[in-house]
Design goal:
The protein is of the alpha+beta class. The chain contains twelve helices and five strands. Among the domains are: 127 residues, no CATH class; 160 residues, Histidine kinase-like ATPase, C-terminal domain (Heat Shock Protein 90, 2-Layer Sandwich).
């Protein structure tokens, strides 16, 4: 089998919408938390031009630090520990300076809770949350003139509770990120395995096709030797005998009649061999319809009554699979006609989830267990094994014979496009079928 192209897979998984939204929140949060207190400060705080200049300068420093340390960074750059640790410390430092100017800038300090998510491993992120909470509430506590034991206890409790609450988000975020990485790695390995399996499948089918050519030549050589060559030998023998006794017309005529009968039989065998080379029924239809045509024609040509049944959802199989199953049914029916002396024959084609089954059963005389595997069964077994399937035979003297094949349900899309009439021959390789002679 030649592959026109090898399917490739991307190892990158699209980021979920919620993850992109969270990135936007982390990016915009410090800018909003800086702009709002600045607007309040300029609108409601009485400052001279010098004081406003200092405030604006600090805000400019904060904006510059956020831009170079976070906003302009890519997602991969934000995963680097040392640059993000330096950025986070600087963020808290400039936030502390701004709160010294106006406590309204404690809103900007809240950005530390958001950006602590970038600190890895988790204990650094928790430490960043604790530092942010400590800075935020220390500035508030220092602004209170009456520090009491109850106030200090409340301050400590708030810092600890806030740190624990925000840190839970960091822990869960880290776990989710770890699971995402594991899923991405699993998907990448799975896709690599699928791609490798596709290549191996193509290689195996190519080898099967090449080996099948040799096998078909050997099969045809056996067919010619067992049928045509023997028939021609018999014809020559009868004609030579007739020549020797030509003076006795009655005796000579009898030998010539035998030669004529052998010639007709040989012609029939030749036609059967030619027909076996190319399944015309599959050239015009897929397997279920082709089997119905084959069984209907066989029923007309033979004394036994034959029926065909198809179960499951019909799907177009690979041409190799369809040809192999058709050939098996054809060979099995030929064996029934030659050997079984059956009155009824049933052919059943079953489509399951991942396999396709073909059963040919008759109520004939059966096969003796002492008799070895014959050309017919061997030929069927070769074909089915060549497409990755298996053949089983059950038979008891006087109770009929059942030949069953199981093949993988490889659809047309799983193999290169070929017309249904294209022949596919299996490689050499017989499985043992005890007691078979057909």
């Amino acid at each position: 089998m030649e592959m026109s192209g090898r399917q490739t897979y991307s190892t990158m998984k699209p980021r979920p919408n919620w993850e992109s939204g969270w990135d936007w929140i982390l990016t915009l949060a410090p800018w909003i938390l800086l702009a709002v207190p600045l607007a309040i400060n300029l609108a409601f705080t009485r400052q001279d031009w010098g004081q406003q200049g200092v405030t604006l300068a600090l805000v400019a420093v904060a904006a510059f630090w956020v831009y170079i340390g976070h906003t302009r960074k890519s997602a991969e750059q934000r995963e680097r520990l040392l640059p993000m640790l330096v950025y986070f410390v600087g963020l808290l430092a400039v936030a502390a300076a701004l709160m010294q100017r106006d406590h309204m800038f404690l809103m900007f300090t809240i950005a530390g809770f958001f950006h602590a998510f970038y600190l890895k491993p988790v204990f650094l992120g928790v430490t960043g949350v604790f530092a942010t909470s400590l800075l935020l509430h220390t500035a508030t506590a220092l602004d209170t003139s009456d520090l009491t034991a109850q106030g200090v206890g409340t301050y400590i409790a708030i810092v600890l509770i806030q740190t624990a609450a925000v840190s839970l988000g960091i822990v869960f975020s880290a776990k989710a990120a770890e699971q995402d990485r594991e899923r991405e790695e699993t998907l990448a390995k799975l896709k690599e395995a699928l791609e490798e399996n596709a290549g191996l499948h193509a290689q195996l089918l190519t080898q099967a096709r090449e080996a099948g050519v040799l096998d078909e030549r050997q099969r045809m050589a056996r067919e010619i030797h067992d049928t045509l060559a023997q028939g021609l030998t018999g014809i020559i023998t009868q004609v030579q005998t007739a020549q020797w006794i030509w003076q006795d017309p009655q005796q000579a005529r009898r030998h010539l009649d035998r030669a004529l009968a052998l010639a007709r039989d040989s012609l029939a065998e030749a036609r059967r061999a030619v027909q076996a080379l190319r399944p015309q029924d599959l050239a015009e239809a897929h397997l279920p319809d082709a089997l119905e045509t084959l069984v209907r024609r066989w029923d007309v040509e033979n004394d036994a009554h034959a029926t065909v049944a198809v179960t499951g959802e019909r799907v177009p199989l690979s041409p190799a699979i369809e040809v192999a199953l058709y050939r098996m049914a054809q060979e099995a029916l030929t064996n029934v006609a030659k050997h079984a002396e059956a009155s009824r024959v049933g052919v059943t084609l079953s489509y399951l989830d991942d396999v396709v089954l073909l059963d040919v059963r008759d109520d004939g005389r059966g096969i003796g267990a002492a008799r070895g595997a014959g050309v017919g069964i061997n030929s069927m077994t070769q074909r089915i094994r060549g497409v990755g399937g298996s053949v089983e035979l059950e038979s008891t003297l006087g109770e009929g014979t059942a030949v069953s094949a199981s093949v993988p349900a490889i659809t047309v899309g799983a193999s290169p496009d070929r017309s249904p009439s294209t022949e596919y021959e299996p490689p050499v390789g017989l499985s043992s079928v005890p007691g078979a002679t057909r």
